[in-house]
Amino acid sequence: MGAPLGAPPPPRARPPPPRPPRQYRGARAEPDLTGRTVMLVDDGLATGATMRVAIRAARLRGARRIVVAVPVGAPDSCAALAAQVDELVCLSQPPDFRAVGQWYRQFDQTGDAEVQDLLALAWRDQAREGSVHPPTQANGENHETNVRTRSSPR
């Protein structure tokens, strides 16, 4: 049974408020993308809306080349995004695609705390290896960060 005629519609779920960029970067400066190749990676493409925003942000920050990489995506979304980037890598574009999560055995939400922990671990490892200066050194150099996460695609 639905709501009675004339009843106000149920309230819509609101998206979470945008996270402040510093929540993930901490004291680190925003990376300078000018003239650089940027690789944008996601767990998959459904509508592609989030990736379009990331592409736009990278272009506005001066990225020279943009590569999008996903394990799975809706064929129409992949085709539309391919026209907006220099390269799109999508391992599987199933014709029966309905949602990203249907292509994973486990598709849990990654919380802010886990993302912050992974970034801190990656930055610590890079600083120890000498490939990245710790954030306390303001030397103005550009740094790239690679973060590996566990996933279980089908």
Tags for this model:
single chain; 154 residues; alpha/beta; 3-stranded parallel β-sheet; 4 helices; 3 strands; 27% helix; 12% strand; disordered C terminus
Low-confidence stretches: 132-154
Q: What spatial order of strands do you see in the largest sheet?
A: 1-2-3
Order of helices and strands: HEHEHEH
Q: How large is the radius of gyration?
A: 19 Å
Largest sheet: 3 strands, parallel
Question: Termini, distance in Å?
Answer: 37 Å
Estimate the strand proportion. Answer: 5-15%
Write down the overall geometry: globular
Roughly what is the average pLDDT, rounded to an integer?
80
> How much helix is in the residues?
25-40%
Strand elements, count: 3
Question: How would you classify the helix and strand content by structural class?
Answer: alpha/beta
Individual helix count? 4
Briefly, what is this?
By secondary structure, the chain is α/β, with parallel strands linked by helices. Helix content is 27%, strand content 12%.
